[in-house]
């Protein structure tokens, strides 16, 4: 009996589709976090952190930066992980939870902290499923 290794090779088209999906989800997540921040601000929630105002566009920029890092993680896992989808979901859920820690300890009011955490969760809710769908199970 001969054992053969069952390896998965990621093709360029798969990585391309993953990146295209990731970039589209990044744009959607950035717009969504800016909308949540703007809505919260319109509702009277302060966007000040430690006495310094956070511009609404800052939410979109930071969402884009960290979302694109997530796409890079996904592309790496697609190439090297045995179970890329499961590994990606587990990794990004842990990173999302860790991203809430600075919000909890931030020098801001409770409503502002809650709004900040909500933007993280909104971005994750858009990014994680969209990118995970493009990864092999």
TrEMBL record:
Domain of life: Bacteria
Pfam families recorded: DUF6069
Keywords: Membrane, Transmembrane, Transmembrane helix
Membrane-spanning residues: 23-47, 59-81, 88-108, 114-132
Protein name (record): Cell envelope biogenesis protein OmpA
């Amino acid at each position: 009996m001969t054992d053969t290794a069952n390896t998965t090779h990621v093709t360029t088209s798969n990585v391309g589709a993953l990146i295209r999906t990731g970039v589209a989800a990044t744009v959607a997540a950035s717009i969504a976090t800016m909308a949540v921040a703007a809505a919260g601000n319109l509702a009277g929630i302060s966007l000040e952190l430690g006495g310094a105002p956070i511009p609404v566009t800052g939410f979109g920029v930071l969402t884009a930066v960290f979302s694109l890092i997530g796409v890079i993680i996904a592309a790496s896992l697609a190439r090297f992980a045995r179970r890329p989808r499961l590994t990606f979901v587990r990794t990004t859920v842990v990173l999302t939870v860790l991203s809430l820690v600075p919000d909890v300890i931030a020098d801001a009011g409770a409503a502002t902290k809650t709004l900040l955490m909500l933007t993280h969760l909104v971005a994750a809710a858009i990014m994680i499923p969209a990118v995970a769908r493009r990864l092999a199970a």
